[in-house]
Amino acid sequence: MLDLAILGLLQESPMHGYELRKQLSTKLGTIRAAISYGSLYPTLRRLQTAGWIAEAGETPADDEAVPPLTSRRGRVVYKITAEGKERFQDLLAQVGPEAYEDAAFGVHFAFFARTDVEVRLRILEGRRRKIEERREGFRDVLGRAAERLDAYTLELQKHGLEAADREVRWLEELIANERKNSQNPPADNPWRP
Amino acid sequence: MLDLAILGLLQESPMHGYELRKQLSTKLGTIRAAISYGSLYPTLRRLQTAGWIAEAGETPADDEAVPPLTSRRGRVVYKITAEGKERFQDLLAQVGPEAYEDAAFGVHFAFFARTDVEVRLRILEGRRRKIEERREGFRDVLGRAAERLDAYTLELQKHGLEAADREVRWLEELIANERKNSQNPPADNPWRP
DNA sequence: TAACGATGTATCGAGCCGATACATCGCGCT
DNA sequence: AGCGCGATGTATCGGCTCGATACATCGTTA
Asked: Is B160 on the interface with A (CB under 8 A)?
């Protein structure tokens, strides 16, 4: 899940850890909050071991000795490898039920511009079903057990129901748009690097 | 965080793990999804070791031998202890910055009916500040960097902004209500067991 | 009575987070 | 010049949590 996100970002341009984290935070909106370094760095090492990414060297220039003193660790820039790009495409295409969860959905959605239309539709519809179920859960509680709940729990349920409802409508718009655009030529796939 | 939730529920009535999980899921609305058994059972044991909760026995009745055969594990009902009730009150009152995070906020909110007004206000206002910051983050991205983003990322940001905006308004309503009710006698603290 | 789904307890590996430590860089203040 | 301070940057550790899995019992229905 983090794998997909990192590979996707590195595909746009080489980057080091800190930058990666920042881009992730903004790109993923509410759904996925911020990624922590305790997850990021181990993942980077795992990806490097697997061969999906490699260090990019940051122009070593012409020094005689390697580090003069004070170990000098400096920033580590990573770039994606050819195998990494394949892996990215695989991850993009293979959509299991976990892709509808909050976090994973956010990541998948963030790279929709590089995803096939059919896959996009599959994900959006799966997500919609999931949120619809959540919405029905709220409805049930409010309908069947409202009198047994205190005022605050009730308020929380009402707010949850409304949020779910909005999200379903949002997804519906997106789905309708995909269908329309897949009829006549999509004109463009607006992704600006 | 799970501690608070479990102690709170057990205060309403003794319960076993499975039931605990169900109640949690519905009571906590969207904010906190479902709690997994991999978290629940270890936590229960920890709480029991600490002395906050104890097994309630489930009416052992009058059997001569303990388990006839087939180890017969059966359901384990837990009840809260006196120390546990103290602990619950402590956890309710001590509101650090972590109480404004999604998960913790949901749990705290779920037990607002048994929380002091000042504490309720502190939590609601802290939460509002947090969501306001999140909202500003979305605004910044949409204002400053909109032209550099692809259509889907843009859409995600817009949806995030709208959701954050709604939540701020919701919190504002709740805060206004608290203030109003803390002026004249609250009339009642509607919590039905 | 046999099958099946809901109920129920429990563990394991892996992922992820928050806190923490440490180092460097650029900037402004005095 | 010197000093501090916040942003940038890499890295680890303990602990919590999740998803998957296993296993057992109960009630209902075919």
From this structure: yes
Architecture of domain A2-56+76-96: Orthogonal Bundle (1.10)
In the block, tokens 């996707």 appear at: A8
pLDDT level of residue A47 (50, 70, 90 thresholds): very high
What count of CB pairs under 8 Å joins A to B?
Answer: 86
pTM over cut 0.70: yes
Contact A26, B141 (CB under 8 A): yes
Q: Which residues contact A3 (CB under 8 A, 6 or more apart)?
A: A43, A47, A52, A87, A91
Lowest mean per-residue pLDDT among A18-27, A47-56, A93-102, A174-183: A93-102
B76 inside 8 A of chain A by CB:
no
Tell me: the pLDDT tens digits for B7-16?
Answer: 999 998 999 9
Identify which of A106, A113, A164 has the shortest CB distance to residue B30: A164
Q: Does residue A34 register a pLDDT over 90?
A: no
Task: Tell me which nucleotides of strand C come within 7 A of a protein CB.
Answer: 7-13, 15-20, 23-24
Is residue A172 scored above 90 in pLDDT?
yes
Scanning residues 129 through 168 of protein chain B, those with a beta carbon under 7 Å from any atom of strand D turn out to be none
Q: Is the pLDDT of residue A193 over 50?
A: no
Confidence band for A60, pLDDT divided at 50, 70 and 90: very low
In CATH terms, B2-56+77-108 corresponds, of 3.40.50.300, 3.30.70.141, 1.10.10.10, 3.20.20.140, to: 1.10.10.10
Q: Which of residues 32-61 of A touch strand D (CB under 7 A)?
A: 37-38, 41-42, 44-45
Q: What percent of chain A has pLDDT over 90?
A: 48
CA A130/CA A152 separation, integer angstroms = 25
Probe site for chain B from A153, A162, A165 (most B CB atoms < 10 A): A153
**Encoding tokens for residue B5?**
């939730």
Domain locations along chain A: 2-56+76-96, 116-183
> For B36 and D21, how far is CA from C1' in angstroms?
13
Please tell me if residue B144 touches chain A, with a CB cutoff of 8 Å.
no
Q: In whole angstroms, give the CA distance from residue A66 to residue B185.
A: 74
- The one-character DSSP state at A35 is P
3-state SS assignment for residue A162: helix
Averaged confidence pLDDT in chain B: 82
